[in-house]
Amino acid sequence: MVVEIEAGLRRWLGALWGKSASRGGGRRNLLLSHMLDTAAVAECLWDGYLPAVTRELLDRVAGGPGRGRRFFAWLCGIHDCGKATPAFQCVDADCAAAVWHAGLRWDEFKVGRARWRHDKAGAVLLRRVLPDEGWVAEQVAWVWPLVAGHHGRFPDLGELVLRGARLRAVQVPDADWAAAQAGLVRVFTEEVGFGAVAAVQPSSVPSRAEQLQLSGLIVMADWIASRLDGIDELEAVSMDGARDRARGVWAELGLRGGWGKLPVPGMEVFQDRFGRGPRASQSLVLEVARKMPAPGLMVVEAPMGEGKTKGALGAAEVFAARFGADGVFFGMPTQATCDPMFGQVREWVERIEPGLGSQVALLHGKRALNAQWRALLDAAAEDPDDDFGTIEEDAALGLPQSAGAAGERLVPAEWFLGRLRGLLCPFVVGTIDQLLFAATRTKHVMLRMAGLVGKVVVLDEVHAADVYMSQFLKEGLRWLGQAGVPVVLLSATLPPAQRDELLAAYLSGATGEEHEASGVPRAAGYPSVTAVWADEHGKPAHAVEHCGGWRDDLRVRVSVADESPTASRSSGDSVADLVQERLTDGGTALVIRNTVDRVQETYVALRARFGAEVGLLHGRLSAVDRATRTADNLALLGPEENRRPAPGQRWILVASQLAEQSFDVSADLLITDLAPIDLVLQRIGRLHRHATSRPEALREPEVIITGFQDRGNESPWLLPASEAIYGRMLLLRTAATVFAARGGTWSIPSDVPSLVAEVYEGTEPVPEGWSDAERAASDRDLRDRRDRIAKAERFLLTRVGHHGGPTLAGLHRGGAGELGEHQARALVRDGDPSIEVQLLTRDERGYRTINGRSLGLNGDASAEVLDDILGSTVRLPAKLTAAAEEELAPLPAWRTHPWLRHSRALVVEHRGATALASFDVSYDGALGLIVTGTGTR
Q: Where are the extended beta strands (E) located within 392-527?
């Protein structure tokens, strides 16, 4: 020890423990030792992990350049001071005896009855000690919630109130305890390097979003420090020793930050990163990114195939260089679209700095199915939790846990699977859900926010967020705006009102003032870039630019194929007639249906007519079948002539909505079910996408829209399944827009913004005979929107009316507790949840994969058959979810397997079908998962 300590305090500090022998590597760890270990780990975080923007924040809060590092170490280390209370010290008999012998006593009866968590106790302790040392109330007010919340949940002040004898019993029963607690804080503070506790006092208060980031970093430092073995002799405890120990574990874990400080790239960045110069729209994105005077939100709207992704990556590099971000989070709409983006981001990062590609994490619930990701983790622990143990001491020792929580793991698999774990990795590709989770009032939300703040955030296909998801997206943007995180949103078909709401949400956070509407003008052209930020006075500022696209407009002929209610069950034959008529000389066609049942029915009809010239792609194929068919169709409908059908031959793909986003194919003819206009336009983006040779009859691009029926002056008949998915209002308005264009053309992409606005804003009236039906549908849509918004508000990170709070106190009031990946996904996505299972067969010799590989009687999953098991993953329809959760479970041998222990096996008997929830479920090699029956048996 460097600090001089009087004899009585020395005796107390030599007894107060932070981890028992069973949790401290076989030896008791003194409380002061763990606090110093955590402070030393914080110094490692500062030196090797924190983004420049976060170091600048801490310097500013601490009072100036050079002061942030020591303050950050103190802030992380002080987190466990609440263990210096009878409530915690009494729970391990051996450790308690040493404390008792040192002269710190308690009433065992009262303490045993009054259960009290050490995180809350730490907040109470600091609210007494810090003012005594000269801290002002404003600074104490934001620091104590960081201590109270370091196990994942921020209580409000009312939860810290213990009065009279109860408070004395569990917190500070006598003058000796008060002196020991104050002495612990003083000695720790001086060991860290401050002359006195008063010298630690910050000079400014960070924003609440910045406080949330700091809270997550405190948790991270605590988790890493908890890995260290115990020190039970006070003479061996010192900050220098803690630094040596922390550097050792830091090197052992291999943790690191991102790319550090980057130079601001010029226009040559595109050639360097992507092997070619930028298109006009990409140059515009880079230009606006370079001109923005402060971090902000950029919305990039450009046609499908324009190159928005590469433009966003270029902007991310510019933003990182200018504003001190040390990495990127790239959010995609689905798990399937994440996987190809993972490879693209790895390649981009590798070109910035060789070797950096290994620091890119793939983060979604089924990443185990990604062969590239699994190969990168071959050297990881069999069970990633085995390396870390737990830090939920209160639960382990019998004290109450945080409300709504299951036991806390030191490094949850959802966050830290692999060498540099989860969202805290500097470069992450994941579903947009990862950002939406950060906007929920759930346990450990601070870790999610710490994984986003300090990065550039890019979100693709943001138009795909429905009204329920959008509430979480707007809440997340508000917090990111307050934290000064640069954000790039990408879309080809973003409705104007949705754009305005997203801009307003970010500005509300950035300026600290509520914005119902952004007040930002709309772009006069397409592609366009709209950017907003807070100026030097904290007021909203914006830039709106547009340019020409890199391709000329396509004049797409709009045709309608009426489908009557009576003919809907045999609509596949009608589609076959259309294909036969249009593809007489060969060519390619893409048929998009709104439900898997219609995809399968249409495929059967087309297959009967055209044989092997027909393919199928939907979301109920096994993982391996889906991957194989996706790759095959990307080739057959891709830009390379030698891989497309030969002249005179046909290729017809029947697909679900999988084909409407992040699917780079080019068909000569598109046939699609009616959907909201933005999705119809997304589908049209797969029409004549590449400059390939085509039969003369298909030189003019044509979209044929079906799935509804023109009934003259009456509103059209709409396919009930489509109405159930998309709602009646948007389908009616889209049908009116389609009928108005029937026999004519749309100029794509120039007409895209006006078509989207026409439907979503109702700027063009529907035919007079439809007006009552449209008005009723609009009223119903408004009621539904209000209901879904109210439903989402219950789970938003900030309760309604509390966005102006200056601290994190009470943030989790009414929260949802700690959720697993599947539960969290259900929280941020409305509608009936679906579930994935592993599809197997069984015979007299035991279980087999669907391609016949034997798994034995217990489902043994050796390395040789793991790919086959994972490749058998298939998603069930939502109507089977409840039954699957109740009836299906992992096979016996899977329960300890790192990739399969949470998997559910759906075993199809040798006859080829099984019963689940009174439905018959089977798997056909051509059609995929087949579900028959009414579910009423």
A: 427-431, 456-459, 487-491
Closest CA to 556 of 697, 685, 736: 685
- Calpha distance 927→656 (Å, rounded): 13
Verify cis geometry, omega within 30 degrees of 0, for the bond prior to 527: yes
Measured CA distances, 786 to 422, 467, 783, 791 (Å): 34, 9, 5, 9
CA–CA gap between residue 124 and residue 143 (Å, rounded): 11
* Helix (H) or strand (E) run with residue 306 in it: none
The residue written with tokens 């010290």 in the block is 89
172-197: per-residue pLDDT in tens?
888 999 999 999 999 999 999 999 99
Taking 3-state DSSP, the helix, strand and coil percentages for the chain, each rounded to the nearest 5, stand at 50, 15, 40
What's the predicted TM-score (pTM) here?
Answer: 0.91
Residue 669 has a CB neighbour count (10 Å cut-off) of 23
Cα separation of 485 and 473, whole Å? Answer: 14
Task: Give, in order, the Cα–Cα distances in Å from 374 to each of 200, 343, 357, 367, 377.
Answer: 45, 13, 15, 8, 5
Cα angle 724, 726, 731 (rounded to 5 degrees) comes to 110
Q: How far is CA 52 from CA 117, 535, 645, 832, in A?
A: 35, 21, 53, 43
Neighbouring residues of 711: CB distance < 8 A, sequence distance ≥ 6:
717
The candidate with the shortest Cα–Cα distance to 797, out of 814, 818, 821, is 814
d(Cα 300, Cα 623) in Å, to the nearest integer? 32
The residues, ordered by sequence, that sit 6+ positions from 641 with a Cβ below 8 Å of its Cβ are 692, 693
Q: Using the predicted structure, report yes or no on whether residue 604 has a pLDDT greater than 90.
A: yes
Local structure of residue 540 (DSSP, 8 states): E
Q: How far apart are the C-alpha atoms of 578 and 561, rounded to whole Å? A: 9
What is the tens place of the pLDDT at every residue in 680-722?
999 999 999 988 899 999 999 999 999 999 998 899 999 999 9
* E strands present in 379-439: 427-431
Strand-pairing partners, residue 653, are 590, 615
Rounded-to-integer distance, Cα 837 and Cα 889, Å:
9
Amino acid in position 815: G
Please say whether the beta carbons of 212 and 451 come within 8 A.
Answer: no
CA distance 286 to 284: 5
At 521, list the tokens. Answer: 């003008």
Measured between alpha carbons, how far apart are the two ends of the chain, in Å? 75
